[in-house]
Amino acid sequence: METEPTEADLHWLRQAIELSRRCPPSATAFSVGALVVDADGTVLSDGWSRRDDPHEHAEEAALAGLAGVHPDATIYSSLEPCSARASRPRTCTGLILESGLRRVVFAWREPAIFVDCDGAEQLREAGRTVIEVPSLAPLVRKVNSHIVAS
Question: Homologous superfamily of 7-143 in CATH?
């Protein structure tokens, strides 16, 4: 099972981190960017936290813009997909599982500030490939310095 990111993974994850800079600021939520990229490198959808709704998560926005099922695509998220949520009944982990996406790449594990998250573990247990890229986590912490220290 693959565990190391490819050069393409690093590129797309950096793009997801750039998307997170578009998030309207919030003292009670992380700023996250996400995009779904097909196996051939075509961007299928993107999203960022609070893009269309004050409670919207980045993965939720990106998945909502996805037309059809793309099991060979990858979702890139600057932050680990949530597995618990205060603002909505469906988590990003659940939405990813429902979407049929089989590959998830993220930079920073969600710290237990708002909820206790185990999205990466839930996705792996469901048979998804999950690749964490902690070398890019400092960039995500910087975007979220309004909540946590870089």
Answer: Cytidine Deaminase, domain 2 (3.40.140.10)
- The domain segmentation of the chain, as residue ranges, is 7-143
Q: Which of 2, 56, 59, 60 is catalytic?
A: 59
Name the nearest CA neighbour of 83 among 123, 47, 50: 123
In tens, the pLDDT along 22-48 reads 998 888 889 999 999 999 999 999 999
pLDDT tens per residue across span 107-139 = 998 776 666 688 899 999 999 999 999 999 999
| C-alpha to C-alpha distance for 11 and 123, rounded to whole angstroms | 22
Report if pTM > 0.85. Answer: yes
Measured between alpha carbons, how far is 21 from 140 in angstroms, rounded to an integer? 9
Cβ neighbours of 74 (radius 10 Å): 23
Q: Is 132 annotated as catalytic?
A: no
- Give Cα 46 distance to the centre of its chain: 10
